[in-house]
Amino acid sequence: MKTTSQALSWFVLSSYATGCAACPFGSSGGLPPNDKAHSQLRRRLTNVNSHPVPHRKLQEEDCFSGDTYDAIEVDIAAMSALQADNVARGHFLGGILRLAAHDFMDFDQHSERAMGPDGCIDWQHEANAGLETIWCDEPGLCPLKQVYDEKYSFISRADFWVAAANAVIKISSDGGLDLKSTFKWGRVDADQCPDSATRLPEAGDCSQVQETFLNRLGLTWRDAVALIGGHTIGRGNTNFSGHEGIWVDTVEESTIFDKRYYEEVIRRAWIPRNEGTIVQDWTWGNPDNNGNPRFMLNTDMCLLFDIETTFPCCSRTDLTRNNGSNQCDRGNTVLSDTPCGRTSNQEAADAMVEFAGERATGGFDNDNGPFFNAFSVAWEAATSNGHANLQELALSCTPTQSPTPLPTATPTPLPSAAPTNLQTQSPTAPPTANPTPPPVTPSPTASCVDVDSFTDNNGRTRDCAWTIQNGRCGPFAHLCPVSCGECACLLDKRVCASGDECCSGSCVAGQCACLAKNADCTSGDQCCSGLCRDDGTCAGKKGAMFD
Ligand code: HEM
């Protein structure tokens, strides 16, 4: 079906159009229109990289300990702190949560191919656009993937994505919601998940929420309302979904996991935005808001309002601006006399009001408890779907094989100032569950040979064929320089004494570094972005949003 990006464009945009034709928010149907939103979606689609999912099956001897869980949390906190600003931080944290959600939202309890949380999403599908800025192999762009490759690939991707999302929730709620006690591991990764993205809910109306969360995932409306509260962090992007902005009031709030999302649905005068297009949604206040417009999707609004019957409408006709004008009226949009009625879906509406903590006397309480409790229950169910034998975190992980002798290759002596352990390249110390880290051996450029075998982080015997097969040159190229193509020069982040040893020509603090934006270069291999411009300087991060 999806043989070319053009065919895919047509397929995806057609399905968007069809989806909206079925909903009350208008669509031209037929050919996708040639407006700005569509041309951006098309451009994005042709840029979406293919990220083939490497084969990864949980091994019997694999083990996931509490220490590893904690180490993931520390690493994600460090990566979050390194984000340039709250816009980038909101997308980084939100993107991780969305990644885990997209993995579990393709579950179908009625299908022989149940899918669900299996470390597999369809990277080619427009519904997943934007997630490739979180999980990719482009140097410098996706630190989450890099840290997984370097430190955690002994656990499945699916387990890692859930643990990483749990870390995001704990970090961004300032410890308010800690899901460690309910976390279980043992999800098995899938190699392929064709058509999984067609099971993801579109943002059309509540029938899509019902189809995904109730019919396929086997959850309740209360569960669905709790999970969709994940929109309290992160943002929508014109270039990804076509929906631009944040669900909460400020960019800073979009980095905080709390009940603010529910409060916002209730307290603002929401009016339709982008009416008559496939990216119709809702907004309030200043339409631009310094590049951070506030928005809600139809699938957010429908949880409290009957937007199908009353569309177009305004959710709070009682609010006025300082100048006395009604907040429901702006330009040609006059909706002060058209209130959105409340939905007849009492279970969803009750959950919205409960999680918001709306007081009968007006205003909201300060208690995140009801939201956090409901989220915790729904999250555990959604992230466990399809896996009957998940296990609790181990107290410790004991290697099942005795360590093998150290590699026989003659290593080049380490420069004394160089880091003494390659694993310190990642933001934190490795999990203490790794009892026998491989010996640190700088790539033997003088006598370039692969070792016969070595002991991996979990005490298992590995060889260079395994390293290549499993894409593990990141952590093990120093032991397999021939197989990993590191004989002529040292790869990025290898221990080095001088720039001459590094493929990039740059040795920083004892490690080979790729060249940053605007540094002089002669070829793309030297640049972190992989792009050396015609003027002999490195381009910025390839595809980075916030370059
Ligand atoms: C009816 C169900 C849902 C729909 C229709 C939906 C739709 C969307 C859309 C259109 C975006 C904007 C993506 C972009 O432009 O980058 C988005 C982002 C996001 N979604 Fe959802 N979503 C749903 C459920 C969920 C659930 C269950 C979670 C988590 C538990 C979640 C978490 C997020 C987060 C955190 C973001 C922000 C991502 C970022 O900052 O890059 N969503 N969602």
Structure, described:
The structure is a single chain. This protein is mostly helical. Among the domains are: 163 residues, Peroxidase, domain 2, CATH 1.10.420.10; 114 residues, no CATH class. It is built from 15 helices and eleven strands. It has a three-stranded antiparallel β-sheet. A two-stranded antiparallel ribbon has the order 1-7. Strand 2 and strand 3 form a beta hairpin. Helix 3 packs antiparallel against helix 5, helix 8 crosses helix 13 and helix 9 packs across helix 12. It is globular. The chain starts with a helix and ends in a 35-residue tail after the last strand. The N terminus and C terminus are likely disordered. Bound molecules: protoporphyrin IX containing FE. The site of protoporphyrin IX containing FE has 26 residues, from helix 4, helix 7 and helix 8.
- State the CATH superfamily name of the domain at 216-378: Peroxidase, domain 2
Summarize the biggest pleated sheet: 3 strands, antiparallel
The SSE string, one letter per element, is: HHHHHHEHHHEEEHHEEHHEEEHHEE
- Structural class computed from helices and strand pairing: mainly alpha
Give the low-pLDDT segments.
Answer: 1-61, 400-446, 541-547
Task: Give me the side-by-side strand order of the main sheet.
Answer: 2-3-4
Please give the count of helices.
15
Q: Give the end-to-end Cα distance, rounded to a whole number of Å.
A: 35 Å
CATH structural fold name of the domain at 216-378: Peroxidase, domain 2
The CATH architecture assignment of the domain at 216-378 turns out to be Orthogonal Bundle
* CATH hierarchy, class of the domain at 216-378: Mainly Alpha
The share of residues in extended strands comes to under 5%
What ions, cofactors and ligands are bound?
Answer: protoporphyrin IX containing FE
**Total strand segments:** 11
Helical content band: 25-40%
- The chain-level mean pLDDT equals 79
Q: What is the 3D shape?
A: globular
